[in-house]
Amino acid sequence: MVDLSASTRLMAAILLFALVTVETGGLYLLRVVRGDAVSTPFQLSFARAGHAHAGVLLILSLVGLLYADAVGLNGPLGTIARSGVPVAALLMSAGFFLSSLGEGRQEPNRFIVMVYVGGVCWRPGSSPSASASCALPDGRLSGPTSDDGGRCGLTAS
User: Fold this and answer.
1) Phi and psi (nearest 5°) for 135?
2) Is the entire prediction scored with pTM above 0.85?
């Protein structure tokens, strides 16, 4: 069993409250799909992208928190591992929604840059957790020359 750090518990609580915004985005998307809200095909596709990125990255953030604590990531690396993906979720989904605002919009406005900035935040935020998932019990990373033959602790069935 993994003991959750105080920073992980706090971030998980924030993320679970943020789930309300994903639900709100889903309600808006449902209105658009039903035709209750006027939108262009471009706006519909960006609403779908924003909602999908928000939900998937939020779940990935929660999973990453568990990995960060499971291997004991602390200090700056732990902060990056715990906050990179949640920041990316916020920036990328907001970028999709905000860049498609405006009546009859057919192309993104300047807020599209938020999607790219979110992508920059996502990469370093996901790397420590991904690397940590392949850590051996003594803290070394699994690789081709490690004791487990580079299988990340997995065995063939």
Assistant:
1) -80, 140
2) no
